[in-house]
């Protein structure tokens, strides 16, 4: 088993790889902005960290939600913003257009050439299999070499087709550039022909009803809403953990419903995700809170680490058994807290 400390850092496979030497940086909130929207773009310099309200990542979105007529303006806007802004500790990501779109070649060529030294991660939508990552990987290698870039740009795939879900392990392992995976619930729902009309979140019709009570036949039976995304997120977390890349929730479109948003984000955090997308400034604070371990969890994890001494055997703490395995869970928590505090 991999030491817990390595979970937050992509693992090198085989020979040491410069991509995997990049130290892990927090990415709890990936805040999307449309660089063709001047009002939105003008706020970007003020959103750069450090600061507890800042997102860990600012992402210039070029794909869906940007009108076809604005694709070029969005690309040019992102170049302008990146060149004019000192991002400090905040990462700069972009979401390029889909690989079968007329815009993607210009997206990659322009962005790597003009702002490749500032771009940390390129998010690739609608990834279907390893071949999509290989294509982007090769193109990036050529463009980076031409631009004389020394730091490789990492790649993040959005899981938003049924084929992508079926090929999830090979996608995660397709390149040492792979940084992570996000759930794309809107496109994935459409591709699967799910009967929903939402961007992420639950559905009031997706229920399990309590069995009838023979003693009380007329009693109203309880119903419990189930999580539509549980299977996909769990599958994504396993594939990411296996390959040492990071899993993320994705978009939650009901901006007004902060409670449901927080619930979805927390489920994803508990299942192993390290962050999520933010589509509105309100969601940054929710993501920063949810994807940071609580003070109580950190305190408890540190007590277990201290009590476990050399890390083997079993101890009783507050009436509960702790052993080598619970210690490993606590180390995940402690190391995440240290990474966020660094
Ligand atoms: C995101 O891109 C989604 O389709 O949900
Ligand atoms: Mg999508």
UniProtKB/TrEMBL annotation:
Ranges for domain HpcH/HpaI aldolase/citrate lyase: 35-198
Keywords: Lyase, Magnesium, Metal-binding
InterPro entries xrefs: Aldolase/citrate-lyase_domain (IPR005000), Citrate_lyase_beta/mcl1/mcl2 (IPR011206), Pyrv/PenolPyrv_kinase-like_dom (IPR015813), Pyrv_kinase-like_dom_sf (IPR040442)
Pfam families: HpcH_HpaI
Single annotated GO MF: lyase activity
Bias (Basic and acidic residues) ranges: 210-221
Cofactor: Mg(2+)
KW Metal-binding (keyword) present: yes
Protein's UniProt keywords contain Metal-binding: yes
Gene3D superfamilies xref list: Phosphoenolpyruvate-binding domains
Ranges where the record places region Disordered: 199-223
Top-level taxon: Bacteria
Identification of the protein by name: HpcH/HpaI aldolase/citrate lyase family protein
């Amino acid at each position: 088993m991999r030491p817990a400390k390595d979970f937050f850092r992509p693992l090198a496979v085989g020979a040491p790889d410069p991509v995997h030497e990049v130290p892990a940086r927090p990415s709890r909130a990936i805040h999307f902005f449309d660089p063709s929207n001047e009002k939105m773009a003008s706020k970007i310099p003020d959103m750069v960290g450090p600061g507890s309200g800042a997102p860990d990542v600012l992402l210039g979105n070029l794909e869906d939600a940007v009108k076809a007529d604005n694709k070029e303006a969005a690309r040019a806007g992102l170049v302008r913003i990146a060149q004019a802004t000192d991002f400090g500790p905040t990462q700069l990501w972009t979401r390029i257009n889909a690989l079968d779109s007329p815009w993607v070649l210009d997206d990659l060529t322009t962005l790597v050439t003009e702002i490749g030294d500032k771009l940390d991660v390129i998010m690739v939508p609608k990834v279907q299999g390893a071949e999509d990552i290989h294509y982007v990987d090769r193109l990036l290698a050529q463009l980076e070499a031409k631009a004389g870039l020394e730091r490789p740009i990492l790649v993040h795939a959005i899981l938003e087709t049924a084929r992508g879900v079926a090929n999830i392990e090979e996608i995660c392992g397709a390149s040492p550039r792979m940084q992570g995976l996000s759930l794309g619930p809107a496109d994935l729902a459409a591709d699967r022909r799910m009967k929903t009309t939402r961007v992420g979140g639950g559905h009031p019709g997706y229920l399990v009803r309590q069995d009838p009570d023979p003693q009380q036949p007329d009693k109203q039976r309880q119903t419990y809403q189930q999580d539509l995304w549980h299977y996909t997120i769990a599958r994504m977390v396993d594939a990411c953990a296996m390959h040492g890349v990071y899993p993320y929730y994705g978009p939650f479109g009901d901006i007004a419903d902060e409670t449901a948003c927080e619930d979805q984000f927390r489920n994803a955090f508990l299942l192993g995700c390290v962050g999520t997308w933010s589509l509105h400034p309100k969601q940054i604070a929710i993501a920063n809170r949810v994807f940071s371990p609580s003070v109580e969890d950190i305190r408890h994890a540190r007590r277990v680490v201290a009590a476990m001494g050399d890390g083997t055997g079993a101890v009783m703490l507050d009436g509960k058994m702790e052993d080598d395995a619970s210690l490993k869970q606590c180390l995940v928590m402690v190391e995440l807290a240290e990474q966020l505090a660094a």
